[in-house]
Write a structure and sequence with these properties.
Elements (H helix, E strand, L loop, with lengths): L2 H14 L12 H16 L5 H9 L16 H25 L4 H11 L8 H23 L4 H14 L2 H8 L6 H8 L4 H7 L15 H6 L21 E3 L5 E3 L5 E2 L3 E2 L1
Antiparallel strand pairs: 1-2, 3-4
């Protein structure tokens, strides 16, 4: 990356540093967020393009000036707020990028990414969405979980998961259970392992194949539809057992989610 890229990043960060809100360490919250976006982008795509790196760094620039409370409650007000946010971020990004020496085509590309145009179609836009979701899950979901009830959390998790690509979802599965899921489990007073096994909203297809067909099934897997062997079907008298990360076996009770009764 060249001098103008470094200059643009420095200018973005200078604006982020103006955020009046501070985290527990005393750092401006939006500056911390921007650095986390860049860090996750580097993890997912070390060879990411320059426009994508710039968009990740300025995605929420001056977000504190556009308050959700200034908009109507409900889905319509929320969507209007998000659109106005994206347009505001894109406009300020344009000013900073032009002052750093970027041309019109480059600026427009960054603006399109910041606005999340062609999500699910443009690979870079989708990657930026994945990065934002991963930053939320790793760093902000715990605090979010403590403020909302279980139905709200399930709804947000479902929407977050649906926005992510298979690559992003795979990265999310690699997050430590103790960060997003343990925080949620604590909020709803559930054992995190039990919640993962029987809480619902996992959107996975479980199926069986004969032992002789396992290799063929694995070969049918693709990047978009991965297949993982998770266990064996044994005689009923053996009961259900789950093997945890330490290799210990524990009984697996019959459990699931009933929408009109809660978890059982």
């Amino acid at each position: 990356m060249g001098k103008r890229f470094e200059e643009a990043i420095a200018r973005f960060d200078a604006v982020h540093a103006e955020d009046p809100a501070r985290d527990a360490s005393g750092q401006p919250k939006e500056l911390v967020y921007a650095r986390r976006m860049s860090a996750w982008l580097e993890k997912l795509a070390p060879g990411a393009s320059e426009p994508l790196r710039l968009a990740a760094r300025c995605q929420h620039i001056r977000r504190w000036e556009i308050r959700r409370s200034d908009y109507a409650e409900g889905a319509t007000g929320y969507r209007k707020w998000r659109v106005d946010e994206a347009n505001s971020h894109a406009l300020l990004a344009k000013e900073i990028l032009e002052s750093a020496g970027f041309g019109a085509a480059e600026v427009q590309r960054v603006q399109a990414l910041v606005r999340k145009e062609k999500l699910k179609q443009d690979p870079d836009t989708q990657l930026l969405e994945d990065v934002g979701c991963l930053v939320f899950l790793e760093h902000y979901f715990g605090a979010f979980a403590r403020k909302h009830d279980e139905p709200t959390l399930l709804r947000i998790l479902r929407k977050t998961w649906a926005k992510m690509s298979p690559r992003g979802q795979q990265a999310a599965l690699g997050l430590e259970l103790s960060k997003p899921l343990r925080a949620y489990a604590a909020a709803v007073r559930r054992d995190p392992v039990d919640y993962a096994l029987g809480g619902g909203e996992d959107f996975e297809l479980l199926f069986t194949v004969p032992p002789t067909g396992l290799d063929r099934a694995i070969r049918l897997a693709t990047a978009e539809v991965p297949i993982t062997a998770i266990g064996r079907v044994l005689p009923r008298r053996a009961g259900l057992r789950v093997i945890d990360a330490s290799g210990a076996r524990r009984p697996l009770p019959v459990a699931g989610y009933e929408h009109f009764k809660g978890s059982t």
